[in-house]
């Protein structure tokens, strides 16, 4: 795994991946039983923090690689994602702030989109049908999901309306990643990661706006969100391997 990296760098990034998995899945397996969530807050947030460390490690360890710009945008996006986790967990001043979480997650996805767009252009993977076709399909999915999960049957508030551009933004990341994967199959896991992020957010939206509740819903949200973020961050490996100097 990551054979294109020096031994010490390879072991460090693998160690971070293992630590992330231990925190996320270990928190689920060993956490206290609860109707909605087994994972303790600290293991969830710690797993996300490890991905921030991994993202910036990828950036620092690949500074001589032509994919470093793409990796930088991934690191910025993951950093904003972690800030969103803190807002949603009530760890920022003022307690839990859903709008603050949406704003920071949104900025993270702007970074992901910029990174994917620029990297695809750098690689010459700019086929209009793949890029724009994927975006349109995911925009339709995002808009439909917003309508059925957030809007329908509700008395709309500012938060309900703010959820529409947010859903379309997340769908844009999935669309951009899908368009890249169609042209370069090695980025399939990046597309899967972006899709998992959107799925996680839709479950969370259903919980927030429609009082959706089922056994271990909180864990399902994190067991889609966490792996989604990990696949996005570690897609740096694919980009770096493709552009080895």
Kindly describe this structure.
- The protein has nine helices and no strands.
- With 245 residues, the protein is mainly alpha-helical.
- The chain has one domain (7-242).
Question: Can I get a quick summary?
Answer:
77% of the residues lie in helices and 0% in strands.
Give a quick set of tags describing it.
mainly alpha; 77% helix; single chain; 0% strand; 245 residues; globular
Radius of gyration over C-alpha positions, nearest whole angstrom: 18 Å
**In percent, how helical is the residue content?**
over 70%
Number of domains: 1
Query: What's the count of strands?
Result: 0
Total helix count? 9
What's the overall geometry?
globular
Stretches where pLDDT is under 50 for at least 5 consecutive residues are: none
How much of the residues is beta strand, in percent? under 5%
Spatial gap, N to C terminus: 18 Å
Question: Which H/E pattern describes the elements?
Answer: HHHHHHHHH
The mean pLDDT is 93
Q: Which structural class best describes the helix and strand composition?
A: mainly alpha
């Amino acid at each position: 795994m990551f054979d294109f990296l020096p031994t010490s760098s390879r072991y460090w990034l693998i160690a971070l991946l293992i630590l992330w998995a231990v925190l996320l899945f270990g928190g689920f397996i060993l956490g206290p039983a609860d109707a909605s969530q087994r994972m303790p807050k600290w293991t969830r947030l710690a797993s996300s923090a490890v991905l921030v460390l991994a993202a910036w490690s990828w950036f620092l360890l690949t500074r001589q690689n032509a994919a470093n710009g793409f990796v930088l945008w991934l690191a910025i996006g993951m950093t904003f994602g972690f800030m969103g986790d803190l807002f949603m967990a009530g760890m920022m001043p003022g307690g839990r702030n859903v709008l603050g979480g949406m704003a920071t997650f949104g900025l993270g996805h702007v970074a992901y989109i910029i990174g994917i767009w620029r990297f695809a252009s750098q690689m010459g993977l700019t086929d209009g049908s793949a890029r724009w076709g994927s975006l349109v399909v995911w925009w339709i999915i995002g808009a439909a999901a917003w309508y059925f999960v957030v809007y329908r049957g509700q008395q709309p508030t500012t938060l309900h309306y703010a959820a529409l551009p947010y859903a379309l933004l997340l769908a844009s990341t999935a669309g951009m990643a899908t368009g890249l994967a169609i042209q370069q199959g090695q980025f399939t896991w990046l597309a899967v990661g972006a899709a998992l992020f959107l799925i996680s957010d839709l479950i969370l939206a259903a919980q927030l706006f429609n009082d959706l509740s089922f056994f271990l819903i909180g864990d399902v949200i994190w067991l889609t969100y966490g792996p989604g973020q990990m696949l996005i961050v570690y897609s740096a490996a694919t980009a770096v391997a493709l552009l080895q100097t």
